[in-house]
Amino acid sequence: MSDSKTSYFSKSKISSAILKQALPLTVAELANFLYSTIDRIYIGHIPDIGVDALSGVGFTIPFITIILGLTSLFGTGGTPLFSIALGAKEENKARKIVGNAFSMLLISSIVITIVSIVFMKPILLFFGANEIISLYASKYLNIYLLGTVFTMVSTGMNDYITAQGYPKLAMFTIVIGAIINAVIDPIFIFAFNLGIEGAAIATVISQFISCIWVMNFFFRDRKGIRLNKDSFKLDLKVCSRIILNGTPGFVMNASSSAVTIVANHTLMQYGGEFYVSIMTVVNSVCSIMRVGVNGITNGAKAVLGYNYGAGQFDRVKQGIRFSSLFAFVYSAVIWILIVLFPSFFFSIFTDDVALCEVGNKYLQYFFLAYVFMALQFSGQSTFMALGKAKPSICFSLLRKVILVIPLTIFLPMFLTDSNSGVFLAEPISNIIGGSASFLTMYFTVYRRLGKENQKKPR
Q: What is the band of 165 on the pLDDT scale with cuts at 50, 70, 90?
């Protein structure tokens, strides 16, 4: 592969290199979240059943999150290794990494689809859904899960397009699908009167088109590294490195899924499905607001990994400083907007007056310490970019499993408004987990980079 598309990783100003990667990724990230959030927006406005249907979709979130987690485990977990190989001019090694990632994505997507469909009803009941809510959730999932292979392959492989210096092409992968989904969603939901099932059909169609776009790049396009049959043969060493590096992303998503399950259980206990609907909206707003942080930190990964592989450690430090500061400022702005205009963001997802009036307060609770989320992402993404998976795994577990889940269970027991305890668990964990992640990265990675004396990493 020609080095021309990745040369700016090591030659241009580090902030420019990161922004060149991050801006298309941010658009793509926003479009990616619109796959699910657009569904929730339209579903929340279905006449008569909107609130219950929205609650049902809330119980599908753990399924979707686990699918994203497996995508990180088998797909995007290999992109830092891929970037380091490109920086070291090891093209065959890079091809082997992306080929093995594709094989694992394909196999795991088929397995998760079969398991989820077969055991859907007992899983939903285990998640805390009652019979009525599980009916809405099942209608959506029975169709949505058929597109799992398209979702995992297109999302997981798309990062390898970005890592080769084609962030705009990667952006179009997601944008094309999101636009199609946004256009045909209301047609299937309202015009064809298919309701929640129509939303799922529209999503599967759009995911299929995105997948075709990605596959064209790797099998027909001559711009980047093309895959061949040898690259698909699973190599235990390569697979284990991809899985190890992808484990933080999987743990983040799996723990997020566990948090959603525990939160829904707790809210059903204290407030019922009404409050599950509120949490569904709050999580949707959070997903949209997080795209800027995701975009800058994901954009920095390829640049940091490439320069680390090339032994340019001063540029790595510059990249860490820039991406961390950008993420923190962005998060501060988002926090101000949520505090000042909660009703605007809540009303996007529902026109139910009662849900909006009650939900505004809980949305503000959830975002109380949002700026600390930037520290969490900056710390973990730096560890992942440099191929240091274990610390990232630890901090994923710390914030979600060790902090959020116990807080979600026990805070409601000590507060007059028990439901508020579920929403306050997030800011408390952000403060503790975000600070711990960033400070550890600073002292164990950032400061040591200056002492490397330009030695090539192994």
A: confident
CA atoms within 13 A on the CB side of 410: 6
Q: What is the DSSP string of 18-59?
A: HHHHHHHHHHHHHHHHHHHHHHHHHHHTSTTTHHHHHHHHHT
Do the Cβ atoms of 259 and 252 come closer than 8 Å? Answer: no
- Summarize pLDDT for 5-16 with one digit per residue, the tens: 566 777 889 999
- % helix, strand, coil for the chain, step of 5: 85, 0, 15
Rounded distance between C-alpha atoms, residue 343 and residue 310, angstroms:
49
Where b means 16+ CB within 10 Å and e means fewer, 321-337 reads ebbbebbbebbeebbee
Which candidate, 383, 392, 374, 272, places its Cα nearest to that of 324? 374
**What six digits make up the tokens of 226?**
């093309």
CA neighbours closer than 13 Å in the CB half-sphere of residue 191: 7
Rg of the chain (C-alpha set):
21
Ordered by start, the domain boundaries in the chain are 12-449
